[in-house]
Amino acid sequence: MSSWLAEAAAVFAKDWRSEARTRYALNTLGLFALTTLVLVSVGLGPMGVSAAGAQVLPFLLWIVLLFAAAAGLPRAFVQEEETHTATALRLAARPSTVFWGKLAYALSLTLALEVLVAPLFLAMVQLEVAAPGLFAAGLAAGGFGLAAASTVVAAIIAQARARGTLFAVLSFPILVPLLLLVVEVTRNAVAGEPAGDALRQLLLYDGAVAVAGSMLFPAIWNP
Amino acid sequence: MPPVHLRFTGLARRFGRLAVLRGVGGEVGAGRVLVVTGANGSGKSTLLRCLAGLLAPDAGTIDHREEGDDGPLAAAERRLRVGYVAPDLALYEELTAGENLDFFARLRGVDPARGRVLLARLDLPADRPAGALSSGMRQKLRWAWALLHRPRLLLLDEPFQNLDAAGAAAAGELLAEHLGAGGAAVLAQPTAPTLDPRLAVADRVELAG
Asked: Interhelix angle for A95-125 vs A53-72, to 10°?
């Protein structure tokens, strides 16, 4: 393994080891997701069997995923600053390995969240997916975009004081295009239609956010 | 070229309207210690953070180079080269002392056995969570962390704080070995420390505050 990859893998493994001890992100994401799922299920019932379900439910699924992720993912950098461990990390690791290690951690959390939420959501609202492959591709690409955007924003807000407010303000313009694209892909998957341009644009969005984040990160990380 | 050489001149740093550093300079080479003294708030920690590359000075130059370098190291490279002991440096409380050093050994490409040796030298239990260590034990862990990658330049901000006599002796021994191997150190304390006679003091910088 190259030294760069070993460094990034060490950051990833450390974050999971810390998470296994504190369970902060897992508990936050899991509880938030389950609570909103129950609310949606009780409020809407088996909406998937109605004609409007295929239009509305993909939005709701991604709103659940977005807010659950927003509750837990920003901790990745905030905790390093609050507990003063960021100094040790800055003095021992190259910024790019910190960024990609943290991104890999956020992505693994997001994918775990999707694996928990998506099947439960489909079952609770009785929504059938005509193209499961496209549905899974949308979840994977959307999850990557969500993880990458959250990592970049989390790194920025960790340097600020009003962290909670700032996350919402900075996330909005970055996450809105992602949500519009991923909802379109999910709708197509539910209806059994071709992926169309939305999946291609979603992949471009993912690449753009990851590359831009990687380039900006050294300046954010070392103020 | 000597194993390590550090020269800084005219360093200045402000925080808003408050000028913390004003034209500070100093120099240290292989096998020597530069002692920086000054009252609380005089800028000792700020100076060391600038030298470590953690803080950009508003003015002045930092020329840190080591054997084999063509020129002064950039701040990004200085950060990875120095060993740093400071009160504001914390390790992961949920990980044990051993796990902390293993993690940083992986980041630095160092044999994890080096961390265990340092913990043993400092009489620190490897299996105790960092969050459960006393303040003196945390200071020992900072020493082990700082020496893990065998840095040539040590930046020490009140490095003997909270250490008992045995801990201070063990840390002093490690510092003496570091200098004996051609390393250099900048040591900041409110008053001049009583150093082991083996530790050659190159110079002193008194910060006015």
From this structure: 140
Domains of chain B: 1-82+155-163+188-209 (3.40.50.300)
Mutate to test the interface with B, among A17, A87, A91, A159 (most CBs of B within 10 A): A91
Chain B residue with Cα closest to A5: B107
In this complex, is the C-beta atom of B90 within 8 Å of any C-beta atom belonging to chain A?
A: yes
ipTM: 0.92
Q: pLDDT truncated to tens, each residue of chain A (223 aa)?
A: 669 999 999 999 999 999 999 888 888 888 888 898 888 888 887 776 677 777 889 999 999 999 888 887 777 788 898 899 999 999 999 999 999 999 999 999 999 999 999 999 999 888 899 999 999 999 999 999 999 999 998 888 887 765 666 777 777 888 899 999 999 999 999 999 888 899 999 999 999 999 999 999 999 888 6
- State pTM to two decimals: 0.91
Contacts of B185 (CB under 8 A, 6+ apart): B28, B32, B33, B34, B153, B154, B155, B156, B175, B178, B179
